[in-house]
Amino acid sequence: MSNATKLIHSIPVDPLTGSISVPIYQTSTFVQEAPGENKGYDYARSNNPTRAVLENIIAELEGGQAASAFASGLAAIDAVVKLLQSGDEILAVNDIYGGAFRLFTHIYAKFGIKVNYVDTTDVVNVIDAINSRTRLVWLETPTNPTLKISDIEAIATIARQNGALLCVDNTFASPALQQPIKLGADIVVHSATKYLGGHSDLIAGLVVTRTKELGEKIKFIQNASGAILSPHDSWLVIRGVETLYLRVKEHSKNAQKVAEYLTGHPAVDKVYYPGLKSHHNHDIAARQQSAYGGIVSFSLKTDSAEAAKLVVCNTALFKLAESLGGVKSLLCHPATMTHKSIPAEIRRAAGVSDSLVRLSVGLEDVSDLITDIGHALSIATQTYDKVQSAITLAN
To answer: Is 45 known to be catalytic?
Structure first.
């Protein structure tokens, strides 16, 4: 049986009514027969039947033993960091989501948790940087926004040998394309806002663990901290997951064609997409992913934030917005949007240039998307050249 078929039929029929859609249990508490005697639920912060169905589905999708659904992707990341204590260190990929960088740097650094950032695309860098205080290795693969690919299996071995947990942010690939736990990871996190939800209509996060013991620790942290996903949003993620394989397959097809188009455009300097054979570690992506996802990033030959802003402000189908992974195409300028919280010198050193544009390629007809981005590139190039000529003349 294929994974797509298993996914669809892993979503249970309601045993009470036969409802083919999971019921939304919109309740704050549950009546008990006697103190401590209940039907498995007592208070909705601790557990909820709708949320429990989602958690079971995601755990199965990722090949884990337990899962917890959070109010946002950052809440999920926060819960994982709370496994650590003062004096522990995190070894993290240097091209990291701006929100994770902000959390690590501005929240947890003051509690004595140090983060070392390295280019994890080369396992030698991981070997050189890991030390006796490293308790958590943090990967995104593909990364946000330059789509760097790291060898999950090799880094899992290094982490295990050094007594550290490996956590992989699997948001960009989704379990439809990549299952890090099966490659050796201990924890997987998701911004379910993105591909799992798939319709740009919710905020949610997920943590999946290799073992039940680790899952119980995350669940304890969640219950103590309270960052739970609501019943309605849990239902929305379940609804989105039903079409995950179909959507991600088409996202990947469209993104491949957009990336190939951009590689030949005269205004474009670099194209970042794991499906291109020229992409660094393409061979690793081909081994650990079943396809390459729906995100494409590119930089301009005119390495200027102003030039990039002209691109992102002149598209019709690609909508300028934070986030990604929905059916409608989005684009953003990471340097001034998603990665604004990262100091410029650190951001640039990780490969996020001032002219970098990130595309979330949607499910529209790909020829229309290519026409749209091509038109925006032409307008941006012509406008920027005119402005620069005027400045030159004025001087």
So the answer is: yes
The SS3 assignment for 114 reads strand
Among 41, 42, 45, 102, which one carries the catalytic annotation?
45
Q: Which pLDDT score is estimated for 383? A: 80
What is the domain range of residue 348? Answer: 245-394
133 is catalytic: no
Task: Give the H/E segment covering residue 166.
Answer: strand 165-169
Distance CA 291, CA 176 (A): 9
Close Cβ partners of 213 (under 8 Å, ≥ 6 residues apart): none
For 326-359, the pLDDT digits (tens) are 999 999 999 999 888 888 898 998 889 999 999 9
CA 238 to chain centre: 17
Tens of pLDDT, residue by residue over 135-186, are 999 999 999 999 999 999 999 999 999 999 999 999 999 999 999 999 999 9
Is residue 192 domain-shared with residue 129, that is, in the same domain?
Answer: yes
User: Which of residues 241, 265, 299 is at a domain's end?
Assistant: 241
* Given the residues 97, 195, 261, 384, the one annotated as active site: 97
Q: Which residue is catalytic, options 51, 135, 148, 194?
A: 194
Active-site residue (options: 78, 169, 354, 372): 169
Find the mean pLDDT for residues 117-132.
Answer: 98
> Which run of H or E residues covers position 77?
helix 73-81
287 and 162 in a common domain: no
